[in-house]
Design brief:
The complex is a heterodimer of chains A (440) and B (188).
Chain A lengths: L1 H7 L29 H9 L3 H8 L3 H10 L5 E9 L2 E8 L10 E8 L7 E8 L6 E7 L2 H15 L4 E8 L19 H6 L3 H8 L3 H24 L5 E10 L2 H8 L2 E10 L6 H5 L2 E2 L6 H4 L3 E9 L11 E6 L4 H13 L5 E6 L4 H9 L8 E5 L5 E9 L8 E9 H11 L2 H4 L2 H12 L1
Parallel strand pairs in A: 1-6, 6-7, 7-8, 8-10, 9-10, 10-11, 11-12
Antiparallel strand pairs in A: 1-2, 2-3, 3-4, 4-5, 12-15, 13-14, 14-15
Helix pairs in contact in A: 5-8
Chain B lengths: L2 H9 L2 H9 L9 E5 L5 E5 H4 L3 H10 L3 H6 L2 E2 L5 H13 L16 H14 L2 H13 L6 H8 L4 H30 L1
Classes of the chains: A alpha/beta (440), B mainly alpha (188).
């Protein structure tokens, strides 16, 4: 008993051998934040919120190291990054309203500074409550480098799952001139007239659209490489519910996907018209064999032609892709996959070749009245496989769509009522089975 | 702790459990324990209230004190200030046998007291109160700039940090040298 009471007389034990930022400052009699045990400090940081954590990282090296080590949970839910011409804007949206005076959303804009050949950056910040952006600071360096430097720790330390991560690169700009004034200081008209460098000055502001777009592509590629490198340095993939990418190269979609575990990938193409070599590079030849790809619940990439074998996508329940053409094997594989795998829900495969319908009819049988719909019974299931072919002109320049989906029986019945083609297009055995089910 | 002591003490709490069966379900008398902090002021707390503290609850169940033994041997918490221990005891009494609310607004606002309370609560392993305290500490710096955070939480600057690190290294070096010298002495 004595031992137990003696134990109580001892000093506060540390809960962990790792001390929070440091226990080197506990000379004062009164405890400070630096005296908090590791687990307590972790619990405090879990409640502090994203913005306060960013500010706390700036206070001292000890806290910076501690935060980078512990990676506390935060309330950041959505990140949308948009790269424009000579600027980059980031929208951050938080989970709750307990972000102090800053509200639920914050926008940060990194803009190319004026007047310096080497590059400078102006950072603006806009809270949800305020109408205008406020200039936060000016700094040296390219605006992209400043952004990557700021977001390196954010992407590395993000432990909790994000609902949305969007990266969007603006398409090309066709205006002929670069509109900003290259000199930061005001110059009088006289001084400009007297200046011997006036010719050079004009050359600087009259940047051609081609040159401007070339710079934009370079910045976009550097940004995607930079983000990819940051994500690669994480020990575990970043978890995201919905990932949306609008990039120039198809490889950039999948380069980033290797390090992000997402349920949904929506990939769109930012059209780089005017630079021929970029247009040619639009065919995705390799599907990464990474685990993050296999856990996808929905993949939607309609602006790139996917040349991979269709069997590469069999793990993905919802698929929207574009192909040069649909082969006989593709049709058979898709039909068989839907009949045997209950996890497959809906696939939409666009084809650039309108004549593929002949081949599809050969494989699936003729459908009368030009209603290119087929229904197949799924064994041991109340659902029916519905396949139909659509001919629609859309922005992806793929006139034909081959749709496979599992539908409920009542939906088949409604189709029957609307089109009155069920008797003709459904095989007799399936038709009998449908009526049996409906009778029950 | 001797085995005989444990035996007698563990037999003691068995008495009240048999009593209710004979009477027409009378209420079991609540047992009380005694704690004191640095100021030696003894606080009488019920076993129900002390259940919030995993540390004390574990000790009570191991010791099996009788009422007299508990009175004679108050638990000494020499490292907890009297007023802080009073706060903890009050909180435990208030929340005895009740579900804990999502927020507690009765926590101290002064940072020194709050930090003291956090350390005491962490030591006593009162999980719910620690959660409230951590939220309260976090709220202190929400929406504040780095300079304001440094001021509120009394965070040393990097320069002070480096100086302290050097000092700690020196101290560690001296201690290591002392240990090796002692080990060498033992070997001889």
């Amino acid at each position: 008993m004595f031992c137990l009471l003696q134990f109580l007389l001892l000093k506060f034990p540390k809960k962990s051998s790792e001390c929070p930022p440091s226990d080197l400052f506990s000379k004062n009699e009164k405890p400070t934040i630096m005296d908090m045990p590791h687990l307590v400090m972790t619990q405090i940081l879990d409640n502090i919120g994203f913005l306060a954590i960013q500010n706390l990282r700036k206070t001292c090296k000890s806290f910076r190291c501690f935060i980078d080590d512990v990676k506390p949970n935060n309330d950041l839910k959505k990140v949308n990054i948009r790269l424009g011409h000579h600027y980059l804007r980031v929208f951050l949206i938080f989970d709750n309203e307990e972000n102090g005076k800053n509200g639920r959303a914050v926008t940060v804009k990194y803009e190319e500074g004026e007047g310096k050949a080497e590059g400078s950056c102006v950072i603006y910040k806009k809270d949800e409550n305020s109408e205008d952006s406020k200039e936060l600071m000016k700094t040296d360096g390219h605006f992209l480098d400043v952004f990557l430097n700021d977001f390196e720790s954010i992407f590395k330390n993000q432990r909790s799952k994000l609902i949305d991560l969007g990266i969007k690169i603006d398409t090309f700009n066709y205006s002929n001139t670069y509109t900003y004034l290259p000199l930061s200081k005001f110059q009088s008209i006289f001084s400009r007239c007297l200046s011997t460098r006036s010719k050079k000055f004009k050359e600087v502001i009259k940047m051609t659209a081609e040159e401007k777009n070339r710079q934009h592509v370079k910045t976009a590629n550097e940004m995607m490489n930079g983000i990819e490198q940051i994500l690669e340095s994480r020990t575990v993939p970043l978890e995201v519910e919905n990932l949306s990418l609008t990039v120039f190269k198809s490889s950039q979609n999948f380069g980033i996907l290797r390090f992000i575990k997402t349920n949904l990938l929506h990939g769109t193409r930012a059209y780089p018209k005017g630079i021929s070599e970029e247009i040619e590079n639009s065919v995705l030849d390799s599907i990464p064999t990474c685990d993050t790809f296999k856990t996808l619940e929905r993949l939607q990439i309609l602006h790139y032609v996917m040349t991979n074998p269709i069997s590469d996508f069999l793990d993905i329940p919802e698929l929207y892709i574009k192909r040069e053409s649909i082969s006989r094997e593709d049709v058979l594989i898709m039909k068989q996959a839907f009949l045997t795998n209950s996890h497959l829900k809906k696939w939409k495969v666009k084809s650039k070749n309108r004549k593929d319908n002949v081949l599809i009819r050969e494989v699936l049988g003729q459908s009368p009245d030009n209603q290119e719909k087929w229904f197949f019974e799924i064994p041991n299931s109340a659902k029916v496989l519905s396949i139909y072919v659509n001919y629609v002109f859309d922005t992806t320049f793929a006139p034909m769509t081959f749709d496979c989906m599992q539908i409920n029986l009542c939906f088949v019945f409604s189709i029957f009522l609307i089109y009155k083609t069920l008797h003709a297009s459904v095989r007799p055995s399936v038709r009998l089975w449908i009526f049996e089910k409906l009778d029950n | 702790m001797s085995s005989t002591e444990q035996g007698t003490s563990s037999a003691a709490p068995a008495e009240p459990t048999t009593a209710p069966e004979s009477a027409a379900a009378p209420e079991v008398p609540e047992s009380f324990y005694y704690v004191h902090g640095k100021d030696k002021v003894v606080h009488k707390v019920s076993a129900g209230a002390l259940q919030h503290s995993a540390l004390i609850h574990g000790m009570i169940s191991n010791l099996g004190y009788t009422e007299e033994q508990a009175k004679a041997n108050p638990f000494p918490f020499e490292n907890i200030d009297g007023d802080i221990l009073q706060m903890v005891v009050d909180w435990c009494n208030q929340h005895k046998g009740k579900p804990t609310p999502p927020e507690d607004t009765n926590l101290p606002k002064q940072k020194e007291k709050l930090f003291d309370l956090v350390l005491a609560v962490n030591y006593l392993e009162i999980k719910e109160l620690l959660t409230y305290c951590c939220k309260q500490v976090a709220m202190m710096v929400k929406g504040k700039s780095p300079e304001e955070i440094r001021e509120i939480w009394m965070i040393p600057t990097d320069a002070e940090d480096e100086a302290a690190e050097k000092e700690a290294k020196k101290r560690a070096g001296k201690e290591a040298a002392g240990e090796t010298a002692a080990a060498a002495g033992d070997a001889k």
